Amino acid sequence: MDGMVEENGTSTGAGPADPLGSASSSAPASAPHVVAVTSIVQLTLPTQAPSAQSVIQPNQQSVIQTASNIQSVQLPKGNVILVSKPSSVIHTTQGTLQTLQIKPEPNSLVSTQGQSCSDDSCSGDESPKRKYREMLTRRPSYRKILNDLGGAEIADNRMGSKPGNENEVSLSSSLSFGSVIPAGALQTESGLHTLAVSGGGAGGAIVQYSTNQDEHFYVPGPMLEDQTRKRELRLLKNREAARECRRKKKEYIKCLENRVAVLENQNKALIEELKSLKELYCQQKTE
DNA sequence: ATCATCGATCGTCAGTCCCC
DNA sequence: GGGGACTGACGATCGATGAT
């Protein structure tokens, strides 16, 4: 999922997995596409309102893109339309003058070059097995994805969490390692039992309880101090890592939602433009 | 007021990845 | 290979909401 779309809808990179990016990079430079031209008509489409500006800017990865700014294509009846439309959603990398090939196939909307590939599925030697393998491989971590997005600067707005938990019981004044205490003495609201025990090391120790058969807690002896300290540290780190991971996951999902919105807008605009082009074509045809 | 349900959040475990 | 980081999965908890 490289090359994600940021909130403003601009692509941040031409990542290989970006469906927009992959659609545009395959056009050979300046390949002419004049086929059996019988007549050429140049149209100038009415300029649209600013709100209807192209969603695909010239410096963007366009869904429909060529290397040259004038291109001819074959229409079903042999006519060629040169479209000059300043705010067209169909841009070249260098200009906005471009021709369209309206292919006879019903499913093909707009194509230059005769290759209407707009996703990764058309990349030649990609076998289905290979694609499945890639699907099954672990996707990049949220950290990587967000780094690629340039969103790594997402503020460290950690949720004011503090290490330790609400039910930590400090009995440092009365406990020592090896103590055995009644279970009832450690009741907490949620039933979690973590003891803070002083002595036996620098700054005391956090230990997990254990119970013996007759419902007493056993405070581990000094030999377990290191183990329990390490465990507590590991749990603490993992706790914070889980928080961070969830935060990144939320960001990632937000990005995906934004991307969906942008692509929906693009799709809408393209459909509208195609509609108007078809109308123009029909007009020309009837004349 | 009480109960059931649902969604969100959290902590923990386990598996995987990645760097040294 | 070892250790740390990351993340999916699971269960527990909590608050909101609707039904009774």
Walk me through this protein's architecture.
It contains 4 helices and 9 strands. Helix 3 packs across helix 4 (225-286). It has 287 residues and is of the alpha/beta class. The longest helix is centred in the last third of the chain and has 62 residues, at 225-286. A hairpin with a 7-residue loop joins strand 6 and strand 7 (205-208). The strands form 3 sheets. A 3-stranded mixed beta sheet has the order 1-2-3, with no helix packed on it. The protein has a 3-stranded mixed beta sheet with strand order 4-6-7. Strands 5-9-8 form a 3-stranded antiparallel beta sheet, with no helix packed on it.
What features would you highlight for this structure?
single chain, 287 residues, alpha/beta, three-stranded mixed sheet, 4 helices, 30% helix, DNA-binding
Q: How does the SSE layout of this entry go?
A:
Elements: H1 19-24, E1 39-44, E2 79-84, E3 97-99, H2 128-136, H3 142-149, E4 168-170, E5 180-182, E6 194-197, E7 205-208, E8 210-211, E9 216-218, H4 225-286
Parallel strand pairs: 1-2, 4-6
Antiparallel strand pairs: 2-3, 5-9, 6-7, 8-9
This protein binds a DNA duplex (20 and 20 nucleotides) through residues 138, 141-143, 165, 190, 234-235, 237-239, 241-246, 248-249.
